[in-house]
Amino acid sequence: MKLRSSFRILAVAALAILCSCSTKYAQRGGWPDMYGYSDEPIDATTHQVTFAGNTATSPVVVDRYALFRAAEVTVSKGFDYFIVINTEDDVSKHTVGTVSETQLSSTTYKEHTSTKTIRMFKGTPPAANPQAYDAKSMLNVMGSTIERDTK
After folding, report:
1. What does DSSP assign to residue 16?
2. How far apart are CA 125 and CA 59, in angstroms?
3. Nearest to 116, CA basis, from 72, 55, 56
4. pTM confidence score
5. In whole angstroms, what is the distance from residue 11 CA to residue 22 CA?
6. Whether the Cβ atoms of residue 71 and residue 132 lie closer than 8 Å to each other
7. 125: nearest Cα among 82, 66, 77, 61
8. Per-residue pLDDT tens digits for 53-85
């Protein structure tokens, strides 16, 4: 009986360790790299950029990383600024149950995803549009604050 309880405690501790590390800035892949950024062209000047964070990544960080990726895409395509024309934020909930000899409990974890549809332009961003972002400026200002995956 003690062996089963020890196994349960070890399993919960392992899950806590796995969930305690926030998602680093990296390209999204398949398992186990299912978190990170992805982007998809819609046409020559429009892209959809997504960042998916794990349970330890706050929605604020997920949003910042999606904007940073939008700036990277904009510069790589030869444009100067982008305008966010649509944003979709999603929260996925996962519940993990644990059983002990005396009680049943569960914990719910949330994973945040931000998808931004951007249109890219050349020239100076219009000051009157709060959804217009200077891509090179964003890369310079935000670059040192982005926690990158080092693998």
Report:
1. H
2. 26
3. 72
4. 0.76
5. 19
6. no
7. 82
8. 988 889 999 999 999 999 999 999 999 999 999
